[in-house]
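Standup notes
- DV: blocked on the single-chain target, sequence here:
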Amino acid sequence: MKKLKTLLGCMLVTASCAQLQAQVLQAGSDKAILQTKQGSIVELPGFLTEKLNRINYQKIVLPGPQFIISDDPEYIRVPEAIALKEAVVPGAVRLYVYNVNGVKEPAKIDRKIIAVLKNTGKQTMHLRMLKYSSQKPSLNYFQIGKQGLADYFASNGSEVIRSIAPGKSISIDEKLDKHIVKYDELVHGFYEFVIDQPGEVSVVQAAPGTPVQVAADKIKNIIPFGHANAGRGIFGVSNYKVVNDQTIDTKDGVVQLMLADGATDPWVVGKESHSGMVSKLAGNYGVMYDVELKWKSTDGKGLALVTWNSRSADNQWCGGMAASMVVSEGLFPAG
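- DV (later): unblocked, structure below
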């Protein structure tokens, strides 16, 4: 049984090095698959297509944290503004920050983009980080996204407990508070933490050097919700379990598992609190998929698990892909 976890809306393909009608591996491609190291790139010219037979599966909602994503706007064009503000209740919270310094009028200026947690309760709030991923702002969006997810999977959290007095605010990620974000640089952070008081999570763009409490108290401008990019808001579904209906047999050739396409696997729905409107999480970014693929080999052939970018040719925003997942042990070690 092959298990994987993924956070990206991408296509997953299981390939058995067999031959299908119009799906014939070129000479040497099977050897290339066998010799490709885990996590590396393998070229299969003219082989992968969206017309591959699909794996039918059942999708089960698993218990999970309150999930918040900040990607609307992706580019924050206002020098000082709030890109997201959501109330959270005591318990676990997952926060995905994906924002860019987009200020270019009247000039391109340095900013900082921070994730802020305010204690809206009546008693001292305690915060403990369960998983943590933080990258230095960068123009290499693919690398920062891929490394961010890999770091999140590898994180063991922290035993440090931070305290927040009633009405006070802290930076969820103290590293972000110290970073200078230049024009067009992406700020990428992925966090899962637990709190014991009601709170408010915000993503704020401010001038470098602005204290967190000052930014939280003084900046009131919330950018209107635009139903753009992946979306923003708070979502009730954060974890899925996926199991295939029928056992995959390598003798049947290549099959594909399609996740988070918005059709086969609908996008999760939440609410954007500032507008009060329903929000769709286009791509299900930040949603955790725990996938179990049952398979067998009645023809004695092995099985390879390959991810690929099925939209590279038909979408101007999808020319590349950065993906990260955890897989169980096989030819390569688990990890």
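- Follow-up: The chain has four helices and 24 strands.
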